[in-house]
Amino acid sequence: MATASATIEVPASADQVWQLIGGFNSLPDWLPFIPKSELSEGGRVRRLETSDGAVVVERLQVFDNAGQTYSYSILQAPFPATDYLATIKVEAQGEGAR
């Protein structure tokens, strides 16, 4: 299976960054390409609508608020995706976060 990784450094504390991006339903708050997100199945599944109207459905696999990380898989997408698992993690980096 192929893997990819991306990291950015943010001039804010890890707690501040996690507060913004740490919610499974928070993508519209910080990702302009995703203006709409709706939760179902008790918050374990999100239905995302992209700015061009495409729909992506994802399932929350792991959520660790204390560790500031969550992982999710894609259930449905307008692009081919099989065995997709992504992880978002916030880590303290000096006075900021990454």
Automatic annotation (TrEMBL):
Domain of life: Bacteria
SUPFAM superfamilies membership: Bet v1-like
One Pfam family matching this protein: Polyketide_cyc2
Record's protein name: SRPBCC family protein
Source organism (scientific name): Pseudomonas jessenii
